[in-house]
Task: inverse folding
């Protein structure tokens, strides 16, 4: 994928690619849900587990990506 240039000649950052750890976590979640569904767990429950794992991962990514930019000003006691 080529990088586009803005009018000022600044390159846009490359899109984020999954690391080995992120890929392994996704594979483990999908395999666990597949095993639970194959083992007889209700499909609705398995889908709820997948949705919950997805929400947790989105929250983690947002926190890690944007949490570094905000400084916490804690009151001194």
Result:
């Amino acid at each position: 994928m080529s990088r586009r240039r803005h009018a000022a000649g600044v390159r846009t950052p490359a899109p984020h690619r999954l690391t080995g750890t992120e890929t392994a976590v996704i594979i483990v979640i999908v395999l666990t849900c597949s095993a639970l569904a194959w083992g007889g767990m209700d499909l609705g429950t398995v889908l709820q587990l997948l949705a919950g794992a997805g929400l947790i991962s989105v929250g983690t990514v947002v926190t890690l990506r944007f949490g570094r930019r905000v400084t916490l000003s804690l009151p001194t006691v």
